């Protein structure tokens, strides 16, 4: 019944939006997009047309191989256009008026400047297309979607094309086993011990866009099979601007955030603050069949949990044009999170006849606290009049995480085992230092571009684990010497790269090579020392792009990436919270290398775009979690051990379809679908040799309605195969409606998540002597109300842009 009502509602909204479709007219806006430095044409630049006062673009197109564009069939009225292209600052042209007598507007040459120059941003903010496509990835413009307002970075990632967020808040790119999260081009995994903590409190109103880089350029580290880069707002408007928002949900969640910026003649200052709290609860059912030559028995486990989390985030930035040839950008970020957790589980031991032989009850409580501080400094210098630029960057971070857990276990009947009480205190500290030196210069009459760079990355991890068991006779906690230890990890990476970018007559070719020398050592306080011999890795990268016939784009890429084992996978500290399901790291892991190739084809129409992509990757020494089950001699107790290993090879072939369609000027739809065929071959365990198909997809729908209202919805689905099983299909939904007040300064929004019920996840796992099924449900069904107010005080005098940044 709910599904039928939903379809009726969507169909009614589509009919309502269609009634506002404009009749075909003869108005035309045309022009040519070129580089400000060098005057070369820019093919594939995105052209968006807006009616005066509109929140959504009515037409989206792209420039042809010579940079020309022409938007036709416009009715009489006032318009503005926005031009955007990766690597350049967006350009907005206002005050375009079409009348019956003057219907052909040729804007001539429109020049785009380097995106590095923040002070060349225009003073009026309008909507970008929600999704922009490129040969190397996808860009998701946060300001173009209702679901982005009043949310967090973690919420945004769930609706970004090609990105999947699991139940623990970890984001990955479709078809990629290891994905890294960057913030403003800097790796965030250096910034915090738990990236999910940062993403859960980072406010969406402080985010400009999210870039999904399936083929990262050699300027970036070779780590990971893809990069998700979160680009923060820098504050571009002249004068004082900002917003403040508050949101609350029926599940006991809420957040408040504010950000503001001030821009003067040669500098801009921006800052933001956010506070978030939420309550999570759920349950799970774990059923495992253990079969051995002489016996078969079962574990049937039921669990529940409830946790409360609260966190805050503060950012502050300065952008200063010291001289027309020098710029300095400074930024800091501080993040703090607290959590409390209560959980319980019941484990039923069943014999071969499914009769219960014993019951284990466990109650767990926990308190956690984490904080991280990051400081960034970037200096840019124009070295010559032809556009050469030298950039120096420095990032320092420090973070800490304290986790205290108490586990109480009893048995029925009591005679089978004595009760236990265990206390775990885990204190984790991280420190990091990143330095980069980059130089790029236009060459051959500014047609091509040469880039060179050096980098040094240092990181240190200190994981101090104290395990204590309670002695019921003496009523004291006694240190468990076998499990208590301290893990020290140090990593040094020295890098250098060179790349060359060629563009001419609709062709674009970018090739580069990155070299990285890695030196890692780690040890335990118990005396074990590990040293990884320094190793040199080479990462070639090639990207080919061709735009033709004014509406088609072909792209091909090739690169080699690396997945380095780091502290979480290497640390051999044993987690024995559940004595029947222990886990630990593997200090003998080796890095895994992936060769990946993509072919994409883009077709663009007046109201639509379609970008199919074919991706193939092959990896050796893939690092995966895997499980083994062993029988304790003389008992019917089977213990599961989970660790990491280089399980073997993985070949993956993915077909990814991305597109959007705008049937009227008030309705927009977008969707992406991927099917991935994976083939695992393991030298460790024959049960890991398997083929599997993963399916992922999402659909988005948005509509402008009368009286400054709007509606948006998203549906996401995923069904994934892994090395030892499968995550059964799960679906998530989001619906949002918004109403604007006071000249669009105040907006009220209602969002409904997972309207059909809480999110459920089913996981299957199989080995040589066990089969496991785990079903978990979380309280994701929620209704959230939010208010957001934007304020602007624009300077009265026009400030001329500086020459360079």
Automatic annotation (TrEMBL):
Pfam families per the UniProt record, alphabetical: CarboxypepD_reg, OMP_b-brl_3
Domain of life: Bacteria
Membrane-traversing stretches: none
Gene3D superfamilies registered for this protein in UniProt: Carboxypeptidase-like, regulatory domain, TonB-dependent receptor, beta-barrel domain, TonB-dependent receptor, plug domain
The keyword Signal belongs to this UniProt entry's keyword annotation: yes
Keywords: Cell outer membrane, Membrane, Signal
Compartment(s) of residence: Cell outer membrane
InterPro entries, per database record: Beta-barrel_TonB_sf, CarboxyPept-like_regulatory, OMP_b-brl_3, Plug_dom_sf
Name under which the protein is recorded: Outer membrane beta-barrel protein
């Amino acid at each position: 019944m709910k599904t039928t009502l939903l379809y009726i509602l969507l169909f009614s909204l589509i009919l309502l939006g269609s009634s506002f479709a404009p009749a075909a007219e003869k108005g035309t806006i045309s022009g040519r997009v070129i580089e400000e430095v060098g005057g070369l044409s820019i093919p594939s630049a995105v052209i968006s047309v807006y009616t005066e006062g509109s929140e959504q673009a009515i037409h989206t197109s792209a420039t042809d191989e010579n940079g020309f564009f022409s938007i036709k069939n416009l009715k009489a009225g006032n318009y503005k256009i926005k031009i955007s292209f990766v690597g350049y600052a967006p350009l907005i042209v206002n005050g375009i008026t079409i009348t019956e007598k003057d219907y052909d507007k040729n804007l001539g040459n429109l020049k785009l400047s380097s995106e590095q120059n923040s002070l060349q941003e225009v003073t009026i903010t309008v909507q970008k297309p929600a999704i922009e496509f490129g040969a190397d990835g996808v860009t998701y413009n946060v300001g173009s979607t209702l679901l982005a307002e009043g949310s967090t970075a973690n919420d945004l990632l769930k609706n970004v094309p090609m990105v999947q967020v699991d139940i623990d808040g970890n984001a990955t790119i479709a078809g990629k086993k290891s994905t890294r999260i960057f913030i403003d081009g800097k790796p965030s995994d250096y910034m915090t011990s738990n990236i999910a903590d940062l993403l859960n409190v980072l406010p969406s109103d402080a985010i400009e866009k999210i870039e999904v880089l399936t083929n990262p350029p050699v300027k970036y580290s070779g780590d990971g099979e893809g990069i998700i880069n979160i680009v923060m707002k820098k504050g571009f408007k002249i004068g004082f601007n900002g917003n403040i928002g508050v949101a609350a949900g029926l599940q006991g969640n809420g957040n408040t955030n504010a950000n503001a910026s001030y821009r003067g003649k040669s500098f801009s200052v921006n800052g933001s603050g956010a506070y978030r709290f939420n309550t999570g609860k759920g349950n799970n059912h774990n059923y495992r069949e253990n079969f051995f030559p002489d016996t078969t028995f079962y574990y049937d486990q039921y669990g529940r949990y409830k946790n409360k989390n609260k966190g805050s985030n503060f950012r502050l930035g300065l952008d200063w044009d010291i001289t027309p040839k020098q710029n300095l950008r400074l930024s800091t970020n501080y993040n703090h999170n607290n959590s409390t957790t209560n959980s319980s589980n019941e484990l039923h031991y069943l014999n071969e006849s499914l009769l219960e032989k014993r019951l284990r009850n466990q109650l767990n409580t926990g308190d956690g606290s984490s904080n991280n501080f990051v400081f960034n400094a970037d200096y840019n210098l124009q070295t010559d009049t032809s556009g050469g630029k030298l950039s120096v960057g420095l990032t320092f971070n420090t973070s800490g995480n304290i986790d205290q857990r108490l586990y109480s276990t009893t048995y029925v009947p009591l005679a089978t085992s004595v009760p236990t009480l265990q206390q775990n205190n885990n204190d984790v500290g991280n420190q990091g230092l990143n330095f980069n030196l980059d130089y790029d210069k236009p060459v051959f009459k500014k047609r091509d571009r040469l880039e060179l760079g050096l980098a040094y990355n240092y990181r240190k991890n200190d994981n101090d684990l104290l395990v204590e068991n309670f002695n019921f006779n003496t009523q004291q906690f006694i240190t468990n010497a076998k499990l208590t230890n301290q893990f020290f990890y140090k990593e040094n990476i020295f890098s250098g790269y060179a790349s060359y970018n060629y563009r001419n007559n609709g062709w674009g070719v970018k090739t580069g090579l990155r070299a990285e020398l890695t030196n890692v050592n780690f040890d335990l306080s118990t005396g074990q020392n590990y040293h990884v011999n320094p190793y040199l890795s080479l990462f070639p990268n090639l990207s080919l792009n061709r735009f033709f016939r004014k509406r088609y784009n072909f792209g091909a890429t090739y690169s080699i990436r690396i997945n380095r084992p780091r502290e979480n996978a290497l640390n051999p500290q044993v987690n024995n919270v559940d004595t029947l399901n222990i886990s630990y790291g593997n200090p003998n892991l080796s890095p895994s290398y992936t060769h990946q190739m993509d072919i994409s084809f883009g077709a663009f129409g007046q109201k639509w775009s379609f970008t199919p992509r074919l991706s193939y990757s092959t990896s050796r020494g893939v690092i995966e979690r895997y499980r083994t089950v062993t029988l304790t001699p003389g008992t019917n107790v089977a213990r599961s051990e989970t660790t990491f290993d280089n399980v073997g090879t993985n070949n993956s072939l993915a077909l990814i379809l991305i597109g959007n369609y705008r049937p009227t000027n008030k309705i927009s739809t977008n969707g992406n679908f991927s099917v991935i065929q994976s083939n695992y071959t393991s030298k460790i365990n024959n049960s890991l040799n398997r083929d599997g198909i993963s399916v992922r997809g999402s659909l988005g729908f948005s509509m402008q309605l009368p009286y400054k209202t709007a509606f948006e919805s998203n549906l996401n689905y995923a069904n994934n195969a892994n090395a030892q099983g499968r995550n059964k299909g799960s679906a998530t939904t989001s619906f949002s409606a918004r109403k604007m007040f006071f000249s669009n300064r105040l907006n009220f929004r209602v969002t409904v998540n997972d309207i059909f019920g809480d999110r459920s996840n089913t996981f299957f796992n199989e080995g040589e002597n066990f089969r496991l099924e785990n079903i978990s449900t979380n309280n994701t069904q929620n209704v959230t109300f939010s208010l957001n107010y934007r304020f602007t005080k624009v300077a009265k005098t026009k400030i001329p842009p500086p020459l360079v940044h």
